[in-house]
Amino acid sequence: MSDATIAKPARFRPATEESPATRWALIAVSFAGLAILVLAPLIAVFVEALADGIAASLKSLTSPDARGAIRLTLTIAAISVPLNAIFGIAAAWFITKFDFRGKAFLITLIDLPFSVSPVVAGLCIVLMFGANSAIGGWLVAQGYPIVFAMPGIILATMFVTFPFVARELIPVMIEQGRAEEEAALTLGASGWRTFRTVTLPNIRWALLYGVLLCNARAMGEFGAVAVVSGKIRGQTATMPITIEMLYQEYLSVAAFSLAGVLALLALVTLLLKTALEIRHADQLAATHRH
Amino acid sequence: MHIEIDEISKQFGTTAALHPVSLAVPSGALVALLGPSGSGKTTLLRILGGLEFPTSGRVLFDGQDATGLSVQERRAGFVFQSYALFRHMTVFDNIAYGLNARPRATRPTRAEIARRVTKLLELIQLPDIGARYPSQLSGGQRQRVALARALAIEPRMLLLDEPFGALDAKVRKELRQGLRDIHDTTGLTTVFVTHDQEEAMELADLVVVMSMGRIEQIGKPQDIRARPATPFVREFITA
Amino acid sequence: MGRPLIHRSPMPGLGLSLGITLTMLSLVVLLPIGALLLKGANYGLAGIWETVNRERVWAALFLSFRLSLLAALFNLVFGVVLAWVLVRYRFPGRRILDAVVDLPFALPTAVAGIALTALYAPNGLFGQLAAGIGWKIAYTQWGIFIALVFVGLPFVTRTVQPVVEEIEREVEEASATLGASRLHTIRHVILPMLTPAALTGFALALARAVGEYGSVIFIAGNIPLVTEIAPLLIVIQLEEFNYDAAAAIGIAMLLISFAMLLVINLIQVWSRRRIGYV
């Protein structure tokens, strides 16, 4: 046999790859598309916020309106996110640890808020608890108004963020099955102890992931809150509502500075989310499906 | 078709999957590449099919250098271990796929494609499953459909990667005879990869025993049984 | 139907988890939606029809739906390309690109709204460029389209990505050994496999866009009959304390949402039945 061996030219490409030209064209389109559609608006927030220098921007953030808005938004997130986390854990436990009729229907109901317009969500809360409704009228008479007050904003926020935690936990808990909990129970652990020492460690990263997304949405929700808030400065004006009011008053630097704070929050959220996806991919549902 | 493998080697990064190996496959033979996992047998098969490219060496088909031919140009009927059926297509469309993929000038007419697919379904003795989807078939049926799909392109050779690997023992025995029959009917040069020495010995005209990227012995089944060339071969065929 | 409603189980916490789930689901979601439907029922079909069947409402519903459809179509194509690039190619900056895809989910809509307006307004960076060729973006339907593309961008990518990851190389190789060119393989093998996921993402993006409010109202200009979206009409009715009219439009939008939810579920059932598990 011939001993001549031919060095193989680089033009060989595996059957499952596109040509380098196609590949680089698609990568370029992806970078360009995301730069124009997504990154440019993000950068615009900071450019507009710093249009008059950083001092002016920071000063606008210390105004009473801005401070009130930040405080309100933090309060609302501090109440609605834990409540939704509790719901998410309870719903995921009920759905994954028990067999019952109508499970798929229950999951559909939990997912429902994702397919309802935030404005319609706000409208629903107004019709349920507004001063014109039976319940709302009675509550107002007792001195507990819901709509145009903080409880309404919390309800609206909870409505739009309702599925976040449950959705993240259910697939993870389905995958993990019930064997570990059953083992703990046979070893004599109480129900609560089983949850705390067996279930919770298994779902903690998925829980954190869901809470993270829930929180980002809760702090940034605009449509649903706009309908129920009444937009009373210093009382029911959350950060996004205040941004709108400042923007309509042509206080561009103030509006974008406050928007910049929310944009930073979004970036931190993305950073933590990506870190979770890299370090705990095996314990997250999001990395298996979406 | 006569296949010649001339001093083929393959590096994956720093590890050598194949040290230079040479092998001649006579036209119309049924050849088994036998060895444990990691012996380089699948790599060699994929090089023949044009799915991998050798680091050095040549592949000759009927004396012509085929090393530079793309996978599409090789016209090798390849049956994958997982069968790799297109699950969104019916069995009929799966088998017709290679004919439909031809450029318009050489593509058979619709009626001709239907005729050929029907004939292939008869050849694999599953005449009535054309309208089904792969998910509705048993493992053995899937394997035969994959074989029919590979035969539809009128291949110059047939390459099979662990064709019986995913099947239970009973079906395996049946399909062995099926492959033998199809080989004898079509007369195609056939190379299949297996780690099962019994399967190789029973089915093949020529067995190539491989280990760690090297060919240990080439011979007829009875010769290998009678005169193992190396301690590895002796141990492997008695295992 | 001899099956019990809830099977006996040794698992603890049935009462507690069931109680929390149903109470909160009812209080936060079901009762409010019920209140909307009840309002609609009291108002009557005739009343709802009378409210919706006005030029301004039709124009808003039609505008919302048409531009959402176009934006979702854009995202369908771009999203599939993006999913492919992120899963199949290795290049510097891939992780960052992957994270950036989620920005529209993380960035509050009001922030996105004023940022897009700043960019595309006639004195903004992109607005000026467009004005150079006589193209007005902000305060026209183009502006709405861009905002809807922004909010819907991640959906298709995120539904298609896991499916691309699951495609077996051997299937693509099989196509090539049968003589198919790469383009033929992509068209006849890969794209059909991605179709159910891509359609699901498309429907999600569409549903999101139809209901979108925050990112659109700043850039839209909100001119009745021209750039006024359906959710804005609800807000306007509410500001005038016109609850019946708001409820009527709200119900119309709710029906559109339910219809799309149904379509998404049908797509999934259809694809599961057809493709199954091999």
Automatic annotation (TrEMBL), chain A:
Determine if Transmembrane helix is one of this entry's keywords.
yes
Segments crossing the lipid bilayer: 24-51, 72-95, 115-139, 146-166, 250-272
Entry keyword set? Membrane, Sulfate transport, Transmembrane, Transmembrane helix, Transport
What membrane topology does the UniProt entry give? Multi-pass membrane protein
* Source superkingdom: Bacteria
Give the subcellular location: Cell membrane
Instruction: Name any one Pfam family assigned in the record.
Output: BPD_transp_1
ABC transmembrane type-1 domain sequence ranges: 70-277
Using the record for this protein, list the coiled-coil segments as residue ranges, or answer none.
none
Q: What is its main location?
A: membrane
Q: What does this protein do?
A: Part of the ABC transporter complex CysAWTP (TC 3.A.1.6.1) involved in sulfate/thiosulfate import. Probably responsible for the translocation of the substrate across the membrane.
- What quaternary structure, including any partners, is listed in this protein's UniProt entry? The complex is composed of two ATP-binding proteins (CysA), two transmembrane proteins (CysT and CysW) and a solute-binding protein (CysP).
Protein name, per record: Sulfate ABC transporter permease subunit CysW
Q: Which species does the entry assign this protein to?
A: Albidovulum sediminis
Q: What is the lineage of its organism?
A: Bacteria, Pseudomonadati, Pseudomonadota, Alphaproteobacteria, Rhodobacterales
TrEMBL record, chain B:
Superkingdom assignment: Bacteria
Q: Which InterPro entries match?
A: AAA+_ATPase, ABC_SmlMolc_Importer, ABC_transporter-like_ATP-bd, ABC_transporter-like_CS, P-loop_NTPase, Sulph_transpt1
> Does the keyword Magnesium feature in the UniProt annotation?
no
Taken from the record, one Pfam family name reads ABC_tran
Occurrences of domain ABC transporter (ranges): 3-237
A GO MF label: ATP binding
Alphabetical keyword list: ATP-binding, Nucleotide-binding, Sulfate transport, Translocase, Transport
List the SMART domains. Answer: AAA
Record has Chaperone as a keyword: no
Q: Which PANTHER family match?
A: SPERMIDINE/PUTRESCINE IMPORT ATP-BINDING PROTEIN POTA, SPERMIDINE_PUTRESCINE IMPORT ATP-BINDING PROTEIN POTA
User: Matching NCBIfam families, A to Z?
Assistant: 3a0106s01
Q: What is this protein called?
A: Sulfate ABC transporter ATP-binding protein
Please name the gene that encodes this protein: cysA
From TrEMBL, chain C:
Parts of the chain that traverse the membrane: 12-38, 58-87, 99-121, 133-156, 216-236, 248-270
Q: What Pfam families does the record tag this protein with? A: BPD_transp_1
Localization: Cell membrane
In what way does this protein cross or attach to the membrane?
Multi-pass membrane protein
Could you list this entry's UniProt keywords, alphabetically sorted: Membrane, Sulfate transport, Transmembrane, Transmembrane helix, Transport
Q: Where is the ABC transmembrane type-1 domain?
A: 61-264
Q: What is its main location?
A: membrane
SUPFAM superfamilies referenced in this protein's UniProt entry, alphabetically: MetI-like
Asked if Zinc is a keyword of the record, the answer is no
Q: In which family does this protein belong, per the annotation?
A: Belongs to the binding-protein-dependent transport system permease family. CysTW subfamily.
> What's its job?
Part of the ABC transporter complex CysAWTP (TC 3.A.1.6.1) involved in sulfate/thiosulfate import. Probably responsible for the translocation of the substrate across the membrane.
State how it assembles.
Answer: The complex is composed of two ATP-binding proteins (CysA), two transmembrane proteins (CysT and CysW) and a solute-binding protein (CysP).
Q: What's the protein name?
A: Sulfate transport system permease protein CysT
